[in-house]
Design goal:
Elements: E1 5-6, H1 8-11, H2 36-39, H3 43-57, E2 60-61, H4 62-69, H5 73-85, E3 89-94, E4 101-105, H6 107-119, E5 128-129, H7 130-139, E6 145-146, H8 149-155, H9 163-175, E7 179-182, H10 189-194, E8 203-207, E9 209-212, E10 215-218, E11 236-238, E12 244-246, H11 270-273, E13 277-281, E14 284-287, E15 299-301, E16 306-308, H12 311-314, E17 319-322, H13 332-345, E18 347-351, E19 357-361, E20 365-370, H14 374-377, H15 380-384, E21 388-391, H16 397-411, E22 414-415, H17 419-431, H18 439-454, E23 459-460, H19 462-472, E24 490-491, E25 494-495
Parallel strand pairs: 5-9, 7-20, 7-21, 10-16, 14-17, 17-20, 22-23
Antiparallel strand pairs: 1-6, 2-4, 3-4, 8-13, 9-10, 11-12, 15-16, 18-19, 24-25
Helix pairs in contact: 3-5, 3-6, 16-18, 17-19, 18-19
Length: 504
Amino acid sequence: MTGMQTNSASAAATTPWNHGASHAGDGAGVQSIRSVADTGIPLALLVDLVGKVSLQRGSTCMLGLMAVLKLPLGVLDEVVAFAVRERLMEITHRGALDADVSLRLTDAGTARARESMARCSYVGPAPVTLEDYVQAVHAASVRHQHVNHAFVKDIFHGTTLDTRLLDEVASSLNAGRPLMLFGPSGGGKTYLAERLGLLLQGPVPVPFAICVDSEIIQVFDPLIHETLEGEPLATVCTGMNGHPVARQNAHPNGLETTHPRAGLDVAQAPSVRDRRWQWCKRPVVVTGGELTLDMLEVSFDAAAGFYQAPPHLKANGGIYVIDDFGRQLAPPQALANRWIMPLDRNVDVYTLHTGRRFTVPFDVWTVFSSNFNPWQACDEAFLRRLGCKLFVGPVDVAAYRRIFDAECHRFGMSTEADAFDYLASTLHSLSATPLLACYPRDLLVLVDAECRYQDYPKVVTADLLDEAWRRYFDMTHRPRRIPPDPGPRTGAEGTAHATPFDRH
C-alpha cells in the first residue's frame, strides 16, 4: 500500500528458514527440513513427542504424526527408525507409499511415554530452537515498519479519530520508541491504542513453541495470533517427501514468489518449509488492571510440565498495550522498574524453574495508556525511555458532532434538528461536563434501550437525551429539560424540585 515501507535489507538477513544450502528442484533458495539435525531439536525430545502422540491414540501412523507434530516425513522417518531400533515402537503395517506406515508402542515404549508424559504433558507441534526464534524476530522486526501521512490518512479514512493526534501517534512509530497516552477516562485512549495495529503491515512468523534446554515454552495463542487466510501456510505446503506442493492459485512454476499480504520473498517464509511456524497478522496484545509482575515472566505449570510465554513475548512483531497503567495491583513504579531494561535495550531476560536464564528480543511497539499524570506516577528514569507522551482529552464541538453522528448511524437512529445542540449547548455546557469521546455512545445506548422499551421510533430527541443524561449521571449533574411553556412545572406531587441549573 502506498506510504508503507519495510526495511527489505534487514528482512533479507539470514533467518532460520533461509540459511543453509538450497536443494535442487525446490524452486527457491529455501531451507528444507529433511533431518532431525535440521530441526535443531534433540532427538530424545522428538522421540518423546512421538511416544506421547502414540500413547494418547493407542496406535498411530506417519500421516497422523505429521499432522500433530508439523514435521515432514523425512524427519519422522529418522525419529521412528531410532524408536524401532531401540524397541520402543514397532511397525504394524507398511503400505506401498512411504507415509503409509502404522505404528504402535512396545511395552518399553509405553513405559517411556508414560514417564515422559508425567514430566511434560505437552503434545503438539514440535518446538523450534531459541536461536531460530531470535533470528526470526529480528528478520520480521516491528522496527522495520515505517509509515507516512498519506498512508495513515488512507488507513483511518472515515473514522472519528482526531487527525492531529493520529499524526503524532503514527510519527512515534517511525521513531521506534514506546508511546504513553494519558488523560481522563473516556477520552478514547484505549479505543485508539487497540486500533494502532492497523498501522502495522505484513505478516509475522510465530512458532507454536520454542525449546530452551529441552524445556518447552508455548508461544502461539489462538486468542491472540490470527493466522492469515485461516491456514498455517501461505501458498505452499510441504509434501510427504519434503518437497513443496503448490496450491491451485500458485504461480505456474509451482511456487509463488511473494506472500499474498507481505510482499516478502518465499526465501524468508518459515511456513514454506517448516510447518512449526504460522504466518500471522502482526499481533495486538492488550493487558489491563489484571496485569501482575508474575505475568511478565515465563509461567511454568508444574502440573503440565511446560511453560506459557508472557503477553509481551506473544506480542513480538506487533503492539503491546498496557491499558489502565497505574491501576494494577503492583505499584506503578514497580511495573515501571520491570520495563526499564526491555525498553532501553530491546531484550528481556527470563529464568526457567531449573535456574537457566536466557534472553529474548523485546520487539514490540509498547503503548501505555493511563488516567494518571505520568510525571506523578513514575520517576524520570522510566519517563525518559518513553519516546512520546501524548495527552488525550476532551474534543472540540465539531469532533464531538462527528462522533455523535457516527454513533447514531451505528445504532440506526435518526436525530431531531435540535437534539445535538441541546446535548452540547445545554447538557454539557451548563453542567461543565467536558466533551469526552465516550459520551455519545454511552448516552445513545440508553436512548436506544428506552426506544425499544417504549416502542418509540428510533429518533434521538432532546427529551430522550435529557432522560439518558439523568440516568447516566445524577440529578445534580445536569440541567433540567425546560419545556417550551415557561410556566411553572407541576406534577402529581406538586411543583418539581429545583436543581442548581434551573436558574439558567
